[in-house]
Amino acid sequence: MPLLHLPSRPLTINYTLQGAGADTVVLINGLADDLSSWSLQLPALLAAGFRVLSFDNRGVGLSDQPAGPYTAELLADDTKALVAALGVERFHLGEVSTAVLELGMALFGVSMGGMIAQSYALKYPTDVRSLVLACTYAAPGPFCSRMFALWADMARSTGLAFVRRDTDLWCFTQRFYREREAELLQMEAAAQGVAQSVEAYLAQVRVFGFLSFRWWGKRGGEDGNWIMVDVWLRQDPLSASGDPDFRFAGTAGGVGLSRELWEGIMGAEWKAVKGGHAFAWEEAGAFNEAVVGFLTRDTGK
């Protein structure tokens, strides 16, 4: 996996750029995840003919881990610098008569990555053709703010290995624990192997609690074109698996904060996929089918 130094940040980023397709999908990780967290999505995206960029955010994996605090905008600017350096922030999709039709990339963010993707789309709307946001929100609310503060305190006092054990319990459903222990053990081992200092983890946690995106009525692009947005979220677990759930909850239904985000983005679509916060891994088949279906429809594949 190559490393690329971005003098404007200044920052060195670990990334992979795979596939030869004309349409680029940029994957943005969640908290404490490195680019290996997309291992269940990459085959589906590549098989659909996309070029796929994945990378380690500032503060995790093989990318630099400078002192924080970090913000969603800071990490979005890192992403901007990376795609600009690689020449994928805008690309040529095809020709109309003698003119070249330019279309933006697709941004695909999960959890904290969804917050970074929102910041990018709002700041650089002409870069973005499609936006996929999964298990994320525009503002944390009092419950999630307290939870992330607790994680930060735990990291300081007990270290990241202990925090990750707690996070795994929060991310997957009881059904996953009961029925798929071998996969669970593999995912737990992978999470424990991610390179991240406590200081960098604390810098990333800050992204969650200090944001409030204003999407209401937003349209993308200086030319007035719509940003294509899909919000892919897990199904209410009370009907999906019978497991009570409060992840990113603003209402008793379990997806309140995510629904608030969806309702605030003009023209957005909602797609439910069963599972816990980590439904992209717990229910990868259904999740990938939904995302690839949207992206291929949007690009006309």
Summarize the structure.
The protein is an alpha/beta fold and 301 residues long. The protein is 42% helix and 20% strand.
Report on this structure:
By secondary structure, the chain is α/β, with parallel strands linked by helices. Helices cover 42% and strands 20% of the residues. It contains 12 helices and 9 strands. Strands 1, 2, 3, 4, 5, 6, 7, 8 and 9 form a 9-stranded mixed sheet that branches. A hairpin with a 4-residue loop joins strand 1 and strand 2. Helix 4 runs antiparallel to helix 5 and helix 4 runs antiparallel to helix 8. The longest helix has 18 residues. It is globular and about 50 Å long.
Q: What is the typical, i.e. mean, pLDDT?
A: 80
**Count of alpha/pi helices:** 12
Question: How big is the Rg?
Answer: 18 Å
Low-pLDDT windows of residues: 91-102, 219-254
Sequence-ordered SSE layout with sheet pairings:
Blueprint: E1 3-6, E2 11-18, E3 24-28, H1 42-47, E4 51-55, H2 72-86, E5 90-96, E6 99-110, H3 112-123, E7 128-134, H4 141-158, H5 160-171, H6 174-179, H7 181-192, H8 198-209, E8 228-234, H9 237-240, H10 256-264, E9 269-273, H11 279-282, H12 284-299
Parallel strand pairs: 3-4, 3-6, 6-7, 7-8, 8-9
Antiparallel strand pairs: 1-2, 2-4, 5-6
Helix pairs in contact: 2-3, 4-5, 4-8
